[in-house]
Amino acid sequence: MLLVDVRLGEFLGAIMVVFLGTAMAGVPTVAEAGFPGYEAMTWIALFAPKGMNSENLNKLSERVNSILAEDSFKKSVAAKGLEAVGSPPKALQHFLEAESRKWRAVIQLANIKLD
User: What DSSP state is assigned to residue 30?
Assistant: First the structure.
């Protein structure tokens, strides 16, 4: 597991996120290692089927966010070096739009093409 390897000093490198949390104290981010402005993160989202009515979507969102806010869940993911963050559906939509813009710019700047 990468988290254990880093804490034991068996992995050399930098972490590619802005927020590290206490599990990664002492390990520099890529920005701190000399590449200011660098940010890349892994995220997981729960998606509902297209056309799901807003009442059910909001109920699902509220239930998932309540689980993510539970202390036991937070502690469980924190032990793995992660942070669980919930949001309402509109916030996820805005996040996805921002991620799409960011990575579209990277792809265009680097002239990345599909083979």
Answer: T
Give yes or no: residues 52 and 68 share one domain: yes
Q: What is the pLDDT of residues 25-54, one digit of tens each?
A: 677 777 888 888 877 778 888 888 888 898
Supply the range of the domain harboring residue 35.
Answer: 1-42
Both 99 and 57 in one domain: the answer is yes
Q: Which two tokens stand for residue 13?
A: 């490198």
pTM beyond 0.70: the answer is no
What lies within 8 Å, CB to CB, of 60 at 6+ separation is 46, 48
Task: State how far the Cα of 112 lies from the Cα of 115, in Å rounded to an integer.
Answer: 10
